[in-house]
């Protein structure tokens, strides 16, 4: 490959890694995706290790995360025992899938938290003084606002599914 193209590729991969890390994503996962995204052919784990100068174990672990996002697919190559990968070129689809997964996980955590919170408040109601019952009502009102936000986020996920 031409030296200038190699420099451009390296800068792109490094920049994507830094950008994604600034959003709290795994830098190496982003760099692997960027490498595969720029590649004009499928790459083996060994190819990825060589290009990014990282261990095979690290590539293998991080490529699984990309597979879970739907960002890469394992490709079978006749006569080879190596694992090869190709990238999902539809970046919008990859980003939306990743965001959906993160939001769904957070919504599940919110559901668990609100159910626990509500259960404790409800179980305490019979033991509360009038003043404490007022506090419990405030808790319930505020919990309702959190549940409304969760419902809005769920609706947004449904809409996002239709955009892909």
Task: Report the span from N to C terminus.
Answer: 35 Å
CATH architecture of the largest domain: Orthogonal Bundle
Strand order of the largest sheet: 1-3-2
Main sheet, how many strands, which sense, barrel? 3 strands, antiparallel
Q: Could you name the CATH class of the largest domain?
A: Mainly Alpha
Tell me, briefly, the overall form.
elongated
User: Which class do the helix and strand fractions yield?
Assistant: mainly alpha
Question: Which assembly state applies to the chains in this document?
Answer: single chain
Mean pLDDT, as a whole number?
90
Can you tell me the residue ranges where pLDDT is under 50 for at least 5 consecutive residues? Answer: none
β-strand amount = 5-15%
Order of helices and strands: HHEHHEEHH
Total number of strands: 3
The value of Rg in angstroms is 23 Å
Tally of helical segments: 6
Could you list some keywords that capture this structure?
164 residues; Arc Repressor Mutant, subunit A; 2 domains; three-stranded antiparallel β-sheet; 3 strands; 6% strand
Fold and architecture overview:
The protein is mainly alpha-helical and about 160 residues long. It folds into 2 domains: about 90 residues, Winged helix-like DNA-binding domain superfamily/Winged helix DNA-binding domain (Arc Repressor Mutant, subunit A, Orthogonal Bundle), CATH 1.10.10; about 70 residues. It is about 75% helix and about 5% strand. It contains 6 helices and 3 strands. The chain has a 3-stranded antiparallel β-sheet with strand order 1-3-2. Helix 1 runs antiparallel to helix 2, helix 2 packs across helix 4 and helix 5 packs antiparallel against helix 6. The model has no long low-confidence stretch (mean pLDDT about 90).
């Amino acid at each position: 490959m031409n030296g200038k193209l190699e420099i451009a590729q390296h800068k792109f991969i490094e920049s994507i890694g830094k950008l994604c890390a600034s959003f709290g994503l795994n830098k190496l996962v982003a760099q692997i995706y960027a490498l595969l995204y720029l590649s004009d052919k499928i790459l083996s784990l060994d190819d990825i290790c060589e290009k990014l100068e990282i261990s095979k174990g690290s590539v293998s672990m991080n490529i699984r995360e990309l597979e879970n996002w739907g960002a890469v697919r394992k490709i079978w190559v006749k006569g080879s025992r190596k694992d090869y990968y190709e990238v999902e070129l539809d970046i919008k689809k990859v980003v939306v899938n990743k965001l959906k997964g993160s939001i769904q996980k957070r919504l599940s955590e919110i559901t668990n938290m609100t159910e626990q919170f509500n259960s404790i408040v409800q179980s305490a109601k019979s033991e509360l003084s009038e003043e404490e019952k007022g506090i419990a009502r405030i808790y319930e009102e505020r919990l309702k606002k959190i549940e409304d936000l969760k419902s809005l986020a769920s609706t947004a996920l449904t809409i996002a599914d239709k955009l892909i």
